[in-house]
Structure formats: C-alpha cells, structure tokens
Design brief:
Number of helices: 5
Bound molecules: zinc ion
Strand order of the largest sheet: 5-4-6-7-8
Structural class: alpha+beta
Shape: globular
Helix content: 10-25%
Distance between the termini: 47 Å
Number of strands: 10
C-alpha cells in the first residue's frame, strides 16, 4: 500500500534534483507553499527554494552549444576566405565528432592553393579542400553515425550531402546559407528529402555568446 510519505518523495524527486528542497523540516524558513494531490488525501508540502540551490539560468542550450562548437572548430581552418565547422551528435546529445575544412591529411597547408579564382580550376582550392562535414564524418571511425545529427555552420554542398546520407546521419542543422544560386542547393535538398534526412536552419535561443581567454583564464558570457 502506498503511504503518503512514499508519494511525497516520488512527487518531489524532480524538484529535489533540480535544486528545490522539499521537506516538512523547512517550515521555519522562508518558503513557498505548494499543494500536491494524491489519490486518497491532500498533503500540504513546504517547498523551499534557496538561492544557492537553484540551478543557473545562464547556461547554453543544447542546440546553441552544438552550433557554437561548429564556429569554434571552424576557427582551426586555414582557409583565408571560408571557415566552416561541423559537429556530429548522437541521440543522447553526446558530441561524437568535430571537423573543419582543410587540406587532406599529411599535406602541408602551403603546398596547395587557397584561392577561389585562377586560370585553371586545378589552381584553385576547390579540387583539394576537404569540407568540414567530410572531416567530421571521417574523424570518427569507432562509433556508428547511424541516427546521429550533424550541425554545420554553412549549408552542405551536394558532395557532403551524399556523405551525410551514406554515413547514416538522419538530421542536419545548418546556420548559414552560402551566397550561391538557389539551383546549387537543389541537389542537396532533393537528396536529403528522398533519403529521409531532415534539414533545417538553426534558430538560436541566445542572442550572443562571448568567449574570452586571457592569459590562460577563460570566461564565457551568454546574452539571451
Ligand atoms: Zn561540402
């Protein structure tokens, strides 16, 4: 038989975990009163909220966190014009892999061109640069990417779209559309649609995120 005491603990479990204290012993303190109904009788509970026990409201939501990692990772890129970052996340919101655009492994950054325009296409960066999505996918070799999500700071090109689909990734969240003609986005969107990969634009929950590291001491400020 369920006792009122047992119901009390179950009902308050979430509150305790999130920093709220529920106990009859707190009657003498500054408390807000909350009434919880149980099947057989009503019990008045004193739920005490102390400032030091309330979780911080100034934290980074998951989506903003993952997209912020994309931009931070993009800062590793040597590309003088376009820096892109990608972050792969599993269903448990664990970061599985990160990647940024760069030259293939083992090739020095100065050995291949970084320009966008040249007399011949092989004198531009385009045939050589590995995109952020490709690197994020290939950087993880030990865990399946099935049903994972990929966050990307820019809309994926059609070559990366194919890699994303073949890797088993089921959700794409991008932040920026490249200044390309609409037609160049069509193959990516068409393949995602046909393969059952959802693709949506990132909608931030925060207004601004500032990361400052000075003399090895870091601080982050979030403006919502
Ligand atoms: Zn790409």
């Amino acid at each position: 038989m369920t006792t009122p005491q047992a119901s009390f603990q179950t009902d308050c479990e979430e509150g305790i975990n999130s920093g709220y204290f529920a106990s009859a012993n707190y009657k003498s303190q500054q408390c807000c009163s909350q009434k919880i109904s149980v099947p057989q009788q009503d019990i008045s509970l004193e739920v005490c909220k102390q400032a030091s026990q309330v979780p911080s409201r100034s934290y980074l939501p998951w989506h903003d966190y993952f997209m912020s990692l994309c931009y931070l990772t993009a800062a590793r890129s040597k590309d003088p014009n376009t820096k892109v970052g990608a972050c792969i996340v599993d269903k448990e919101n664990r970061v599985v892999s990160l990647g940024y655009n760069g030259m293939p492994r083992g090739i020095k950054d100065d050995d291949l061109p970084w320009g966008k325009v040249a007399a011949h296409s092989y004198e531009t960066k385009y045939p050589y640069v590995c995109h952020a999505e490709m690197n994020a996918i290939l950087n993880e070799r030990h865990t399946t990417l099935d049903d994972c999500s990929i966050y990307v700071s820019k809309f994926p090109c059609c070559e990366c779209a194919k890699l994303i689909i073949q890797a088993g990734i089921k959700k794409v969240v991008f932040s920026e559309l490249k200044p390309e003609p609409w037609e160049e986005q069509v193959p990516t969107r068409k393949m995602f649609s046909l393969a059952g990969v959802t693709c949506r634009k990132f909608i931030p929950s925060i207004h601004q995120l500032n990361l400052i590291v000075t003399d090895g001491i870091g601080s982050v400020s979030i403006t919502k």
